[in-house]
Amino acid sequence: NFVDTKVPSLQDLLSFVAESGMTCVLDLKERGLMHNIVRAAELTSNLDMSQLIASINYYNDTKDVVTRLKRSTILLNPSADSPIPTDIKGLSGANYFGDLREVGIDVIFPTYSMTSPSIQELGLTAARYGVQLWAFTIDTPQDLIGAAVAGVRTVCTNDPKGALSVYQATQDCMKEECKLPDFFKVESQIRHMYTDSYSSADKK
Fold first, then answer.
1. pLDDT value at position 132?
2. pTM for the model
3. Most buried residue among 25, 124, 131, 160 by CB atoms closer than 10 A?
């Protein structure tokens, strides 16, 4: 029963972020929100802007966010005004990621279903130019494994237990120095370890 529950304000949320030391994603999908958000952040004691992840949908919003939310992580959801090139190799990749770095984008956060055919190349290219690759929404073991192997740093998922199992299996594979240069062999190795760890978790 939440009848008497007060909906927390942005100020309440930021105060909790400051006290807990956690990070917070500010989903800036609507334009015109920056002033109130910056004002709330400035009024929050012990809040460091580095605890904030500003998620934007429009490439043209970047300058305002970078200027006013200094030290925060800037996350771009690729959209119509900032689509990922079909061919990410070579000059097109250099131009795309070079432009992102120039304006201060730290992370790209595309839909996994749209990028999965080229996720391996996208992950390598993003890392080459110093941009993190996150992805949403990834729920199946096969996609979680593919993302992990491709270097996706953070995922949005409806199956956190499965995602953690894949992460642990990936770390275990690295510790064991899996000398399998072929992408699909590495994926197969992690899939096997993932299946074992996931099955064990279910039995518990």
1. 93
2. 0.77
3. 131
